[in-house]
Amino acid sequence: MLFRLQPSDLSFAPRATSVIDHRAHIAAPPEVVFDELVSLAHGREWLEHYLHVEWEGAAPAPVPPDPRVLGRPSDQTFRFMTLRVRVVVAERGRRLVSSVEACSLPLARWMVEEVTFEPTPDGGTDFRWTISSEALAVTRPLLPLIQPLFDGLFRRSTARLAAFCARLP
Q: How much of the chain exceeds pLDDT 70, in percent?
């Protein structure tokens, strides 16, 4: 990938120049939602523009709750870009934090993703997906155009994830 990002964790989030934050109630237990989000086993059904994921050094691909997920980079390929993502926190059914380390597009200097999964009394999950980033100087003037596109992608994908997980047995 052409564009390397600085490794990041949640300490960067308060300084983010761009934040995408989506929430949903999902009618499935937190562990089920977590497993689907990490494995992307059915990603083409709910993650907009998603094509496939390749985990570095893993054959077969690690899936939760496999401990190989933590710290292992993966290349997530979409129709319009590829991201190299490293999981930095993986608490099955509770929390997932990932650092985007590289991208095929010049989107950001750093980017961190946090997903939380809160159990609800009905057996479902209160789901929150937050992506915090700092745009590159060259793309900063384009943020008013880029931000709504990515915000919509995550909004639709969150809704589709909720619908997909609600159909699981």
A: 92
What DSSP line would sit under 32-82, residue for residue? HHHHHHHH-TTHHHHSTTEEEEEETT-SSPP-TT-GGGTT-EEEEEESS-E
3-class SS of residue 148: helix
User: Helix, strand, or coil here: 29?
Assistant: coil
Answer whether CATH 3.30.10.20 is correct for domain 3-166.
no
**Tell me: the pLDDT tens digits for 81-125?**
999 999 989 899 999 999 999 999 888 989 999 999 999 999 999
- Which of 85, 109, 89 shows the shortest CA–CA distance to 99? 85
- Neighbouring CB atoms inside 10 A of 89's CB total 16
pLDDT at residue 54 greater than cutoff 90 = no
Q: Report domain extents, the chain.
A: 3-166
Amino acid at 103: C
CB distance 29 to 124 below 8 Å: yes
